[in-house]
Amino acid sequence: MVQKLETNGDYVNGHDEKSPGDKLNVLVVGAGIGGLLVAIGLRLDGHKVLILEQSPTFGEVGAGLRIPPNSFKILYRWGIDLTYMKKTYSNGNRFLRFDSGETLANMPHGIPEWDFGGCYLMVHRADYHAVLLQRAFDLGVEIRKSSRVDEYDFDAPAVTLQTGERVEGDVIIVADGVQSKARTLFQGHELPPIDTGDISYRILIPGQDVLADPELRDLLSQPWVTSWCGPDAHVIGYPIRGGEIYNVICCCSARSMRDQKFVGDETKLVISDNEELVRRFAGWEPRVRKIVSLAGKDFLKWRLFDLDLVDHWVHPSGKAALLGDAVHPMLPYMASGAAMACEDAAVLRKIFQTATKQNLPAALQRYQKIRQPRASVVQKAGRKLQDAYHLSDGKEQQDRDAWITKDDEKNPIFWGYKARREWLFGHDAENF
């Protein structure tokens, strides 16, 4: 049974009088969404939290992001107020054929607040990050910019910054993203992220431009996540900021694109014009062609990475753990990367309520034991969706289109099957 939204004084006030655990001095590496969430959760229970962020400025690059019910319910309990953040409530997912625009399936969310215990929101990543940052500041989290970690001493535990300064704590939570510098130290061997061969273009189109075209207007006024599925590519669009912006993600196999290439370890580029996108989607239905023609200039091109199952979320010292994309980077197809980081933070918060400095290694191992199986399922589901979205016409595509409308485990869309949808959205990460 899905728990309904309730505020709890222990969560909002940040004092769990029943907790026998120590108040810990926590170092968090990375002030992205995952780092801020774990800092907020731990600070609510009175732990001292310092975030070390390598960037000289706070903020998030990117575009649209989805907050599904499984993370919304945690934000609500923690007093992270999204009331005044510009947002769009999602109707659900709609899948279309690439060349004709024919609807393959509608997957409405119903009433997610009732069915799953929380709202389903579509937001701008930067807006969400700003709300989390303010909540962290309000709770007394210390956040230091221009503080790149150059060395780790996990036995202490401590970090050494690029300035030579040494910073010590009781535990280190590493949330430094898919290109994590610390992950190798946890594994004892190299474990670089794997290039999937797919790239994504993140585009923001002014809502007024979409509304001005009668053929595109419904994409904004009816807030579905619309996905056009085609050979070696798919295009996803949905409104954010209450319709001020139409967020578009074009995911394509790298081999099908002829524009500026990534060099070395580059993970993102700014593309100066939409000429290549116009060429790439010339054979797609009119609305897709219009969308890419509205892309304009200076949008982002991202390289999409994946990662094999990470064996060690906890350092052998028992005094440090990985969180979010540093340990389970998610392909964008499941729209669950930020939500999984939120669940990580929720589990760590709950575990730290009874953790002491003496039992910290066992507590962190429990975190991995709880989170690893679920995160792994979501990771694998994203890989399957990558294949399902990008099928060329033929037998596999026909089978996909036949099963996509059925409430059956053979449905290739993860949340197209009711049992999986409830498992994903109805989950309460704090209930274990």
From TrEMBL:
One of its GO terms (molecular function) is FAD binding. InterPro entries: FAD-bd, FAD-dep_Monooxygenase_BioMet, FAD/NAD-bd_sf. Transmembrane segments: none annotated. Keywords: FAD, Flavoprotein, Monooxygenase, Oxidoreductase. Residues 24-184, 317-377 form the FAD-binding domain. Belongs to the paxM FAD-dependent monooxygenase family. This is FAD/NAD(P)-binding domain-containing protein.
